[in-house]
Amino acid sequence: MGVTLLGTRVSPFGMRVRIALEEKGAKYEFSEQDLRNKGPMLLEMNPVYKKVPVLIHNGKPICESLIAVQHIDEVWNNKSPLLLSDPYQRAQSRFWADFVDNKVYFPGRKTWTKKGQELEAGKNGLIESLKLLEGELGDKPYFEGDKLGYVDVALIPFYSWCKRCMQNESVSKSLPDPQEVYGFLVELRKKLGLE
Questions:
Q1: CA-to-CA distance for 59 and 13, rounded, in angstroms?
Q2: Residue 81 lies in a domain
Q3: 20 to 30 A Cα–Cα from 172, which one of 12, 41, 151, 156?
Q4: Pick the residue with more confidence: 167 or 15?
Q5: Which domain holds residue 21?
Q6: Distance from C-alpha of 139 to C-alpha of 128, rounded to nearest angstrom
Q7: pLDDT tens for each residue of 167-178
Q8: How many domains, the chain?
């Protein structure tokens, strides 16, 4: 099966897809995209949103990171299931992954794209969301129990327990160097006129 991932090394959404592919042991080609000059492949494979990540599997695009992770889990279902088999538990995992996108990412983004009151609102929202997640995690090593799962893959790029998750080779091989991410954010803040 031919698999290509269109993305950027520093995108947390692309990291999710890379982690899932690595966890499953799937062979794939990574194609770094220039988001300032979007190429024809990206525009053809994601004509609606024109953004990364895009997982191309057998010539067919799968857009949006959580959808791509679910696709990977279904296709490479013989190794390391990311979603549990119980329908209720699967629904709960999808709920918490959606929570990560809406209540962790967006407030977190304000901490590096806003100033003043908007920055403070972002910090406060992020702290409250992380408290809720920490409560849900409890004493479990991972969200779904004893092994890396769907919610962990959704959250790893955003949250501090990634050190625990870094013990999984699929995670450590997929994340960029922290200095690379920091440099990207410094440049982004300059472009946005925040520094």
A1: 21
A2: no
A3: 41
A4: 15
A5: 3-76
A6: 19
A7: 656 656 766 676
A8: 2
